[in-house]
Write a structure and sequence with these properties.
Structural class: alpha+beta
Helix content: 25-40%
CATH architecture of one domain: 2-Layer Sandwich
Oligomer: single chain
Strand content: 15-25%
Shape: elongated
Length: about 160
């Protein structure tokens, strides 16, 4: 098979660089632990013989790739995705090959961490429109008038 003449492509599709958890910061692949198992679903005889489902775990609490503040932010933002022992787990069984599922699981993990590390957009304070304030006051006047009408005239 001859290499693809298009630049940036390998023999099996687009060539991907290292997965980034922040601009210029790659996902530390050396710290990831992979486990494989048999994938469920249809597939005939082949599906019962091969382990294509991939589970990737990254120990956030012991990783030197994150500062203490970043670690706290990731754990807070990802909430229940983080296991009580401090690991983040992603699973993929979408593809038919273990390699593709491994890449998909890593991409999912990197996307979660990148999203958690992205600083929140600052809230821009806004004032309620004058018309809204006017409507609120008009409603209060109507309600007050209704209650005043219910009271009736005082008996003398």
């Amino acid at each position: 098979m001859s290499p693809d003449p298009r630049p940036g492509r390998g023999p099996r599709g687009p060539r991907r660089g290292p997965l980034e958890i922040a601009p210029g910061r790659p996902l530390p692949v050396g710290e990831l632990r992979f486990a494989t198992s048999r994938s469920g679903g249809p597939g005939g005889q082949h599906v019962n013989k091969v382990e294509t489902r991939v589970e990737v775990r990254w120990d956030l609490t012991r990783s030197p790739a994150l500062s203490a503040a970043e670690r706290a932010r990731v754990i807070a933002r990802l909430g229940r995705r983080v296991h009580p022992d401090g690991t983040l787990r992603a699973v993929s069984q979408r593809h038919r090959t273990q390699l593709a599922n491994r890449q998909a699981a890593c991409e999912r993990l990197a996307a979660w961490v990148a999203e958690a590390l992205r600083p929140p957009r600052p809230r821009r304070p806004t004032r309620p429109p004058a018309a809204a304030g006017e409507r609120r006051l008009a409603a209060k006047r109507r309600r007050s008038e209704l209650k005043r009408a219910r009271r009736g005239a005082p008996d003398e």
